[in-house]
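Regression test case RT-17, inverse folding.

Input:
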């Protein structure tokens, strides 16, 4: 977890900027939430000295890299730099090929904690990606300072198959741009080496078996908090706003003429949820000095970040799809026997998304927690005032109470068992809302999931009898109090009954 300068600043970096970023990460609470690394990407290195030592641009870093690293460390943060396996970096500055040992010793002297290691400048090189990265791994080991090595070969050489032996994380695909899907990327006519958020997810989703504690697949940096990005590179189709362009031209950032793309707020939350479920590195690409509250709320969502940082280090797997793949269920096992589930709607219309304990959970869950399903409550009204309450719109205003008290009168309130035979019972918690949704038998349905929205929940299995005495962190008391105010003692009596009878829901959508 940390920050990388590339997505926002590109080559416009200097030591004052990096110090300000470090300050902002502490002052904003990002550092306290676990974002520890401050990483400088390409364009910091000017040349090599006669002794082969890499020299930073003196006008950008007049105090030197060690002094900058010392400042970052003084803030309780960690210091990261960038280099390249090849003869030159992706922006044309000196790479580390042939200078691995010199660079590793230099990084150790500077107090470097993180090295992003790119894969440009490899023309004419016959060594495999594995051999090239192993050389730097060995040099870092010999230099004697622990450095987190981040492989950035864009998936070339299948680093997921060998990366664990030489690094702590490895990129699984090409660079990610701040667009949601391939259709948007095509509409913007982005260069082919840039992919969408969902493209990056696709690059990593089949590699879950290779992730684990200390070794992770990396789909790329976060684009949360970015209003868009500036594309550049050789284009296959010319963007309509670029004059005098023909297919195959190199379009510079200056010629592109500004930022394009950007995710909606809903898409940014789903992007962050996916990265947390995938156990991906959480490397900020936005400017920590200037953040909207909405951006900070996403990045500091403690229960969501905890899914990413879970001690088991497992990567989520997509366990169910429907509606031609538009509705997806992702599952991640967590420490302590819990599970994180992402209910994702990739379609264009609002939809319900269901996770089934029997269908989607591992077999050991069913074997341990499967019990004969409790009978669904009878479809009848329990309160004499139901007709009056329904006429007053309470089915919509207070669904958590009304689906229990007035099943016959509220449309669609009668629950149906999601499964037959033994089923499991679990507590469901919404991790974005930080609120328990209730206790559910057999399945849980997230209602009215918006287009491109992901509902992130945790699931904790338990004995059905234990649910009756469970105290949940929900808003039921507020609903009960509201009914008391409107309906007097009858509302209070019905609210108390709801607390008992709504404890175990059978294949229904939510507790409230």
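Golden output:
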């Amino acid at each position: 977890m940390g920050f990388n300068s590339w997505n926002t600043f590109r080559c416009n970096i200097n030591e004052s900027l990096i110090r300000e970023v470090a300050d902002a990460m502490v002052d904003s609470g990002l550092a306290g939430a676990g974002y520890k690394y401050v990483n400088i990407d390409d364009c910091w290195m000017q040349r090599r000295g006669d002794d082969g030592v890499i020299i930073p641009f003196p006008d950008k870093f007049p105090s030197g890299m060690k002094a900058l690293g010392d400042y970052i460390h003084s803030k309780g943060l960690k210091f990261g730099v960038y280099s390249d396996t090849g003869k030159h970096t992706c922006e044309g500055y000196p790479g580390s090929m042939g200078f691995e040992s010199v660079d590793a010793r230099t990084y150790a002297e500077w107090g470097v904690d993180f090295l992003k290691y790119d894969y440009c400048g490899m023309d004419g090189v016959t060594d495999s990606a594995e051999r090239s990265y192993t050389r730097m791994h060995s040099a870092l080991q010999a230099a004697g300072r622990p450095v987190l090595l981040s492989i950035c070969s864009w998936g070339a050489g299948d680093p997921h198959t060998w990366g664990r032996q030489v690094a702590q994380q490895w990129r699984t695909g090409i660079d990610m741009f701040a667009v949601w899907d391939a259709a948007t990327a095509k509409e913007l006519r982005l260069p082919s080496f840039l992919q969408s958020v969902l493209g990056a997810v696709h690059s990593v989703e089949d590699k879950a078996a290779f992730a684990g504690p200390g070794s992770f697949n990396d789909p790329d940096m976060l684009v949360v908090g970015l209003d868009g990005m500036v594309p550049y590179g050789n284009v296959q189709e010319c963007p309509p706003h670029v004059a005098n362009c023909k297919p195959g031209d190199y379009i510079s950032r200056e010629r592109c003429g500004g930022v394009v793309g950007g995710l909606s707020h809903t898409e940014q939350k789903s992007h962050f949820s996916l990265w947390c479920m995938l156990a991906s590195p959480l490397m900020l690409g936005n400017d920590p000095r200037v953040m909207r509250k909405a951006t900070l709320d996403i990045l500091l969502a403690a229960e969501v970040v905890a899914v990413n940082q879970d001690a088991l280090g497992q990567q989520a797997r997509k366990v169910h799809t429907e509606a031609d793949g538009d509705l997806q269920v992702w599952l991640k096992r967590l420490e302590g026997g819990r599970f994180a589930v992402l209910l994702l709607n990739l379609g264009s219309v609002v939809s319900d998304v269901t996770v089934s304990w029997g269908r989607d959970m591992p077999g050991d869950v069913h074997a341990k927690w499967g019990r004969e399903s409790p009978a669904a409550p009878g479809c009848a009204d329990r309160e004499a005032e139901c007709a009056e309450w329904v006429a007053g719109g309470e089915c919509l205003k207070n669904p958590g109470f009304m689906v229990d008290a007035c099943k016959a009168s509220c449309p669609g309130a009668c629950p149906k068992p999601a499964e037959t035979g033994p089923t499991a019972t679990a507590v469901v918690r919404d991790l974005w809302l930080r609120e328990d949704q209730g206790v559910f038998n057999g399945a849980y349905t997230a209602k009215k999931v918006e287009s491109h929205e992901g509902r992130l929940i945790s699931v904790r299995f338990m004995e059905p009898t234990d649910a009756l005495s469970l105290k949940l962190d929900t808003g039921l008391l507020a609903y009960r109090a509201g009914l008391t105010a409107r309906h007097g003692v009858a509302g209070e009596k019905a609210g108390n009954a709801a607390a008992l009878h709504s404890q175990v829901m059978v294949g229904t959508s939510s507790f409230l």
